[in-house]
Design goal:
Elements lengths: L2 H15 L5 E10 L11 E2 L1 E15 L3 E6 L7 E4 L5 H5 L9 H10 L6 E8 L9 H16 L3 H5 L1 H16 L6 H8 L4 E6 L5 E5 L7 E7 L10 H16 L10 H7 L3 H25 L6 H14 L6 H12 L4 E4 L7 E7 L3 H14 L6 E5 L6 E3 L3
Parallel strand pairs: 4-6
Antiparallel strand pairs: 1-3, 1-13, 2-7, 3-6, 4-5, 7-8, 9-11, 9-12, 10-11
Helix pairs in contact: 3-4, 3-6, 4-6, 4-7, 6-7, 8-10, 10-11, 12-13
The chain binds adenosine-5'-diphosphate and magnesium ion (MG).
GO molecular function: galactokinase activity
InterPro entries: Galactokinase (IPR000705), Galactokinase_CS (IPR019741), GalKase_N (IPR019539), GHMP_kinase_C_dom (IPR013750), GHMP_kinase_C_sf (IPR036554), GHMP_kinase_N_dom (IPR006204), GHMP_knse_ATP-bd_CS (IPR006203), Mevalonate/galactokinase (IPR006206)
EC number: 2.7.1.6
Length: about 400
């Protein structure tokens, strides 16, 4: 968020609550470079933080009341007495107030650490529901703000612990069974790096990812096709992976070491394809991290495209706009790209030399127009800092 943005949010807070905020905190959205559908198989992911995110202006209240408002949900503020409130409290809220369950869940879970009431106003430049993780950004901005306001310096510094609290808020207060990737990325990422995260152990490592220095641009292309995780595709894939792991006698597909031997033991061709994707995708994450550690960012493209083909043909979750975007980008000279997220809609990422970015964008836009599709939206993704307090405006 710019200095101007901080000033605007501070003014909006003062207008809304008739007092000045004690500070403004920011938590970024994320994009996952590679490692798709590996998280729930106890595998590896490699996200980085975006420059865009959710900002929270906040001030303590001494009456134990939590007041939540968002500039993106102007007529749906929520006021809740924290004492005795739990997940069922949010369950009773009206549909338009449901957004507040994310920050309320975080505050409720932080009660036992000594957090009390607060007034919070959110602003965001992150599209919601586009797979850039606005929900984790909302949780993490709240978590850091409340910890720092209440002097919980130890907890604020334990970013991995804070990520687990934010994840629990989404699991228990929103009812979304998400993994730990989004919250870890928002809290642990640093500028110019991706985060190699082991979803089994929760351990992570910073991996250098210098795109501008290598004259590379990573474009996020919102294909505008809706992603509905509720149509059962996501749950079915998870169940298939669990069934395959059980048949193979391993705790998770992460543990498959000999791929041909594992495939031989599976009679169902569908399960064989799923295993093929998950096992090779984990290796692609390792290979990607290896290239990045060697400073070979320009070689990433082939791994991204290999991931896309695997998601399209083995995991079978791509969608026509995603395939069109990748095919068009490659023909226009991009280095590689892949679909991201749950599948069946949402965004794709495209890696291209900076000098070719405009040609690639134009080619994609033209291809959409030719087919009568809604214009795609482009976001330039630069590895940015994780959640932090912003300097006063
Ligand atoms: P994603 O995390 O990919 O953006 P989710 O469905 O997980 O998609 O989370 C989106 C939800 O998060 C929104 O529907 C809304 O409830 C909440 N949300 C995100 N950002 C804001 C915001 N700035 N103000 C209010 N609610 C927000
Ligand atoms: Mg989310």
């Amino acid at each position: 968020m710019t200095e101007e943005g901080t000033a605007t949010l501070t003014a909006a807070f003062t207008e809304a609550y008739r007092r000045a905020p004690e500070g403004v905190w920011h938590a970024p959205g994320r994009i996952n470079v590679i490692g798709e559908h590996t998280d729930y198989n106890d595998g590896l992911v490699l996200p980085f933080a975006l420059a865009r995110g959710v900002s929270a202006a906040a001030a303590r209240r001494d009456d134990g009341v939590l007041e939540l408002r968002s500039l993106q949900a102007a007529d749906a503020g929520v006021t809740v007495v924290l004492d005795g409130a739990g997940p069922e409290t949010a369950g009773g809220w009206a549909e338009r107030e449901r957004w507040a369950a994310y920050p309320f869940g975080v505050a409720a879970l932080l009660r036992e650490h000594g957090v009390g009431g607060a007034s919070v106003l959110f602003d965001s430049d992150l599209p919601q529901g586009a797979g850039l993780s606005s929900s984790a950004a909302l949780e993490c901005a709240t978590a850091l703000a409340l910890c720092e306001l209440y002097g919980l310096d130890g907890l604020a510094a334990d970013r991995a612990g804070l990520a687990r609290i934010a994840q629990r808020a989404e699991n228990e207060y929103v009812g979304m069974p998400c993994g730990i990737m989004d919250q870890s990325a928002s809290l642990l990422c640093t500028a110019g790096h991706a985060l190699m995260l082991d979803c089994r152990t929760g351990l992570s490592a910073q991996v250098p990812l210098d795109l501008p220095g290598k004259d590379l641009a990573l474009l996020v292309v919102n294909t505008r096709a809706r992603h509905t995780l509720t149509d059962g595709g996501y749950g079915r894939r998870r169940a298939e992976c669990e069934r395959a792991a059980a048949l193979l006698g391993v705790p998770a597909l992460r543990d498959v070491k000999d791929l041909p031997a594992a495939l031989d033991r599976l009679a169902d061709p569908v399960l064989r394809r799923r295993v093929q994707h998950v096992v090779t995708e984990n290796h692609r994450v390792e290979a990607t991290a290896g290239l990045l550690r060697a400073g070979a960012e320009t070689e990433l493209g082939a791994l991204l495209t290999a991931s896309h083909l695997s998601l399209r043909d083995q995991y079978e979750i791509s969608w026509p706009e995603a395939d069109l975007t990748i095919d068009t980008a490659l023909r226009a000279g991009a280095r590689g790209g892949r679909m991201v997220g749950g599948g069946f809609g949402g965004s794709v990422i495209v890696l291209t030399a900076t000098g070719r970015a405009e040609r690639v964008r134009d080619a994609i836009t033209a291809a959409y127009r030719e087919r009568g599709l809604a214009e795609p939206e482009f976001v330039d993704a630069v590895p940015s800092p994780g959640a932090r307090r912003l300097p006063a405006a």
